[in-house]
Amino acid sequence: MTSDLHPSQLHQHLQMYERAKWSYCGSLAISMGLLFLGATQKPEYKPWVLGASVATLEVGRRHRQTAKLLQESLGDIDRASRVNFQAWARANTQPTAQLALTVGSIDVNWKPENLITDAVEYIQKKQKHVALVGGTGDGKSTFTQYLSSKIGGRVIVYDSDAKPDDWAWIDQADVIGRKGNFKAIDTAMGNDLKTLEELVELRGEGGDNAIAGRERFLIAEEFPILVDECDNSTHWIKRHAKRGRRYKQFICALAQNDTAENFGLQGDKDTLYSCFVLVRLGQFGRDYARTKLKDPQLEQWLKAGGKRRFMVDDCPCELDLSNWGTGSREQPETSGGGNDEVRSQPTAMNEYEQFILDWGQQHPGEVLKAAALNRATRLFDGMQPDEVRIIFASMADRGLGEVEGNGDRLGWRWSK
């Protein structure tokens, strides 16, 4: 009998088998030792020693049963050990072949088949609301500002943490809740519900023409906080999710988790997935690719692209929002047709790429290797050398420097 286990499972099963086998042997030895010890003890102590011996023997019996079950799944133990060693040897002695496959397929030539480059067009075609998920620094606010400037209608923002220069391009009267004013947000959400009912009546009497020009895009920053602080928030999101689209009242709710509870939809997960486009940024997008879509290649592609790459529902998206960074935000399209000049920006980079680029410009002509980079900064702690080389290749592919060598000798240097 031979094992059909994957090499990673094979290694784990072998480890568990060895532990169970030695634990059984150890328990048997201890039990026998306790029996001999009990023979020399006073009568009042013998029952306790005998009980300890029996208990230890029972533990050993269970470990022996575990070892038998593991042996059945492994088959020929000697052959399983050889297969495990061969897998380990391939993983640790052939980095060149692995790197060539990873870099070549993901960062140079490979692109997802269902890749989208216009998230706004996708959202508008779906005619759904937006649930935006991302951690701190993943670019939730940047993406939301970009989306609100493109999607049309009056923009209203509920943001209790808004700084003075946030949302500077929209009417400041429509930025509600600054300085933690949750009462103002709660009141405005209550008014939104009244507005929705009013639009229902108007449309019922005069059709779509009666509500023309009343389109709105409502943005709720950090929605879990609003759920805790604002009584109207849960009713607000449920009501707009189910009826708002028909009356051009679109909402965008932001959270740091994609559970229904975080969006005030406890026990109503179907509403989240049927009425919202889920945009997952940063680690949330990579986790979704790995755990839900079972696509490790897509996960690595997302990781190599930094903030430019994320998931929109089940579709990977690549979107350069470098013009929307702090202090260099693109002026949004307006109904007035303004001709404000838009400042051009370089290709968007994540923090890893920015560090590499800065190093290269400070050391012109020098080749940077993964090992040297890990010694130079703690930023790359926990990142494997192959992952660093993937970043090198990705930057070179976008015209940011050039790579030299191949396999585990691959390095990067700055070139204009």
Q: Your description of this structure?
A:
The chain is of the alpha/beta class. It is built from 15 helices and 10 strands. The strands form 2 sheets. It has an 8-stranded mixed beta sheet with strand order 3-2-4-5-1-6-7-8, sandwiched between helices. A hairpin with a 2-residue loop joins strand 7 (309-312) and strand 8. It starts with 6 loop residues before the first helix and ends with a strand.
Explain the layout of strands and helices:
Layout: H1 7-39, H2 46-74, H3 77-93, H4 95-108, H5 119-126, E1 129-133, H6 140-151, E2 154-158, E3 175-176, H7 182-206, E4 216-220, H8 223-229, H9 233-244, E5 249-255, H10 269-275, E6 276-280, H11 282-292, H12 296-305, E7 309-312, E8 315-318, H13 351-362, H14 370-376, H15 385-397, E9 402-404, E10 411-413
Parallel strand pairs: 1-5, 1-6, 2-3, 2-4, 4-5
Antiparallel strand pairs: 6-7, 7-8, 9-10
Helix pairs in contact: 1-2, 1-3, 4-15, 7-9, 11-12
List keywords for this structure.
alpha/beta; 15 helices; Arc Repressor Mutant, subunit A; 416 residues; eight-stranded mixed β-sheet; disordered N terminus; two-stranded antiparallel ribbon; Rossmann fold; 10 strands
Give the CATH class of the largest domain. Answer: Alpha Beta
Low-confidence region ranges: 1-5, 93-107, 325-347
Q: Order of helices and strands, N to C?
A: HHHHHEHEEHEHHEHEHHEEHHHEE
Any idea what the CATH architecture of the largest domain is? 3-Layer(aba) Sandwich
For the report, how would you describe the main beta sheet? 8 strands, mixed
**Gyration radius, rounded:** 30 Å
Q: What is the strand arrangement across the widest sheet?
A: 3-2-4-5-1-6-7-8
User: How many β-strands, per DSSP?
Assistant: 10
User: Could you say what the CATH topology of the largest domain is called?
Assistant: Rossmann fold
Global structural class: alpha/beta
Strand content is 5-15%
**Number of helical stretches of at least 4 residues:** 15
Structurally, the number of domains stands at 3
Overall, the morphology is extended
Overall residue-averaged pLDDT value: 78
